[in-house]
């Protein structure tokens, strides 16, 4: 099956032929015609040692030029999906198509165009920031120029630290270096497993800026536990629970469809106090209303 240049709408038709029904994410959202980058097709992963089914019959589409967040609690199966996407673990059944190539038959070619930022940094304490980029660059993109190296350092705001040993960097700096490595050689598909884990709010913001900057040229997939992060960064959010897709769509769509709003519980001292609170809340947001009062 060749799905190299098909659009979201043509994929719908294609998928219909194969399964007889639309995948859950396609049912819930209409796309703006972005080309498809990655397709998970009925993907299942069962770990043989503990017989745990970490991902169950998951069908999901990721688009080029978009950021998609895989959002879920611990154990939802996010890292397992990333591991299958990068070819670390083979699926138990189902397959993944990346830029028209099947992971079962074209893994080497897929890896040439893929960048990965693992959950835990794979860095060497005794090498400098610059040496890391040169090392990974020589493996991934031998024709990488000095200009591109400097651009990468600048993009992740590490130019001033390029001659420092990684052992002397903060957690946030290490994370930014790992992200820079994942984008070496203009990777067409980039997967990032919790790119902001363990970083302070300032570094988190910087990482968001980096991802938004690189979004245009690739299919970008990242995992997170944080709804706020998924909302700020993503074009689409896929919510996972126990290895299954619960819903998927643009943040605004999910909010509109599933959002319940917020509830505020107050202990009042007097009736006048209650009236003042209602006035104050309706001043802050016209949607606020009192559900009950005792
Ligand atoms: N190598 C493994 N062998 C056996 N079971 C595993 C393995 N890796 C993960 N699991 C199990 O698969 C399930 C999904 O784990 P996974 O790490 O994919 O979830 P996650 O959403 O990434 O969690 P977290 O947010 O904690 O990283 C869990 O129940 C986990 O215990």
TrEMBL record:
UniProt domain ABC transporter: residue ranges: 38-267
Membrane topology category: Multi-pass membrane protein
Key word Transport present: yes
Alphabetical UniProt keywords: ATP-binding, Membrane, Nucleotide-binding, Repeat, Transmembrane, Transmembrane helix, Transport
Any Pfam family: ABC_tran
Any one GO MF annotation of this record: ATP binding
Localization in the cell: Membrane
GO terms for cellular component: membrane
UniProt xrefs under SMART domains: AAA (SM00382)
Name of the featured protein: ABC transporter domain-containing protein
């Amino acid at each position: 099956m060749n799905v190299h240049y098909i659009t979201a709408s043509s994929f719908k038709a294609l998928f219909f032929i194969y399964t007889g029904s639309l995948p859950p994410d396609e049912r819930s959202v209409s796309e703006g015609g972005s080309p498809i980058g990655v397709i998970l097709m009925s993907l299942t992963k069962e770990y043989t040692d503990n017989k745990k089914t970490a991902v169950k019959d998951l069908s999901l589409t990721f688009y080029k030029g978009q950021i998609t967040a895989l959002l879920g609690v611990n154990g939802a199966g996010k890292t397992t999906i990333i591991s299958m996407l990068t070819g670390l673990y083979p699926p138990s059944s189902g397959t993944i198509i990346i830029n028209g190539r099947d992971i079962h038959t074209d893994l080497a070619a897929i890896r040439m165009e893929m960048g990965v930022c693992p959950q835990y940094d794979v860095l060497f304490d005794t090498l400098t920031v610059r040496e890391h980029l040169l090392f990974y660059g020589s493996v991934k993109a031998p024709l990488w120029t000095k200009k591109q190296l400097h651009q990468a350092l600048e993009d992740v705001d590490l130019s001033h630290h390029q001659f420092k040993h990684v052992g002397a960097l903060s957690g946030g700096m290490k994370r930014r270096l790992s992200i820079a490595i994942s984008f070496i050689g203009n990777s067409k598909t980039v997967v990032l497993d919790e790119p902001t884990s363990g970083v302070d709010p300032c570094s988190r913001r910087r990482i968001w800026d980096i991802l938004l900057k690189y979004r245009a040229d690739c299919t970008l997939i990242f995992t997170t536990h944080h709804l706020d992060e998924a909302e700020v960064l993503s074009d689409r959010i896929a919510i996972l629970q126990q290895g299954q897709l619960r819903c998927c769509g643009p943040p605004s769509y999910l909010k509109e469809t599933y959002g319940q709003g917020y509830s505020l519980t107050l202990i009042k001292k007097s009736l006048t106090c209650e009236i003042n609170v209602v006035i104050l809340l309706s001043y802050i947001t016209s949607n606020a209303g009192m559900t009950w009062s005792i």
